[in-house]
Amino acid sequence: MPELPEVETIRRGLGRLLPGKKVLSAECLDSPRSFPNSSSEVDNFLHGASVTTIRRRAKVLLIDFDSNYTLVIHLKMTGQLVFVATDPVYTSASEIQSEASHEASIATSSTDKLAPRFGGGHPTDSLISKLPDRSTRVIIKFTDGSILYFNDQRKFGWMRLMPTISVPEIDFMKRVGPEPLEDSFGAKDFIERIKRRKGTTIKAAILDQTVLAGVGNIYADESLWAAQIHPATHVSDITDKQLSQLLVEIKKVMNLSIAKGGSTDRNYVDAEGKKGSYLQFANVFRREGQPCPRCGATIEKIRVAGRGTHVCPVCQMIQ
DNA sequence: CACTTGACCTGTCCGC
DNA sequence: TGCGGACAGGTCAAGT
After folding, report:
1. Which of A32, A62, A76, A208 could form an S-S bond across to A156 if both were Cys, CB 3.0 to 4.6 Å?
2. Alpha-carbon dihedral of residues A304, A307, A313, A317, nearest 10 degrees?
3. Nearest residue to B2 (CA, C1')?
4. Are A36 and A73 in contact (CB under 8 A)?
5. What is the C-alpha radius of gyration for chain A, rounded to an integer number of angstroms?
């Protein structure tokens, strides 16, 4: 769930909302799991610090403070970061809620199967007014009365406060591959990296974060469909030309998703509590039993690389 | 060493 | 209607 396009959407939202805000307090409701820093670290480097910039690397969000500390956040599958402007600008929160409601009604009108839902089925507009809820893990309050909620149903997500200068030293940061949307990342580099995983399937290879950053299950299935490559194809059986096309499709699919505010499958929302609409444009993901938009064959759901995998059995032929 | 599987969690959905 | 169990997937640790 949050994959690169979702995390990027959140980054852009928080980038509009947070810079300049000064932290009043930070509270972890399931301490220390979701936010294991010591209270002295939080007191010394978060309380009273102001947000400078919001960055993203792979699926990791980075909130920098003028204390030269950074909140490193991984949302894993069900994590949310939702910003709520309470008093003194209560009206702006209301505007956000009505926008979210509008978008949710559009999304719901597409197909029942894809109608995004939230927890127990609450519409998005009720989310903000009901926070905190039982999925809330961390509450960060700012001096102007606004609040940032870190929610995570499944408790896989986490945040850590650490010196900004130490962020690149995190194991994950050292190992993670290049950003697929960087212009400087091209076919040659992609092909070479994929071929390091020649003993496995192409889906496992593009899901490997050390090969390429940010691809998760949704965009793996969608880009492989677009490139007409069966997800279970062994890397050694794919031509350079096909890999080159696959990179084109990965970039296309991710850019489209960012433009649509990401994918809301079950509970992803952006920084303002809004759902993403990309799944309305998905060709295979969660569309098993429906006709392939390209050839009309019935889309199947199979298991590849330990994941539920959506594939057209006709036009994504194993080579 | 390369690769695969299981664990971490909780809410939802399906079948009995 | 209630309940058990399968399933969802990002990442790391453990197993093959």
Report:
1. A76
2. -40
3. A199
4. no
5. 20
Q: How far is the CA of A199 from the C1' of B1 (A)?
A: 12
Task: Say how far A222 CA is from B3 C1', in Å.
Answer: 24
Specify whether A52 is located in the same domain as A160: yes
pLDDT digits (tens, 9 = 90+) for A230-242: 999 999 999 999 9
Contact at 8 Å (CB) between A206 and A309?
A: no
Asked if A200 CB < 7 A from strand C, the reply is no
* B7: residue with closest CA to C1': A156
A187-226 tens-digit pLDDT = 999 999 999 999 999 999 999 999 999 999 999 999 999 9
Which residue range(s) make up the domain with A193? 187-311
Let me know if residue A180 belongs to a domain: no
The total number of structural domains that make up chain A: 2
Residue A2 annotated in active site: yes
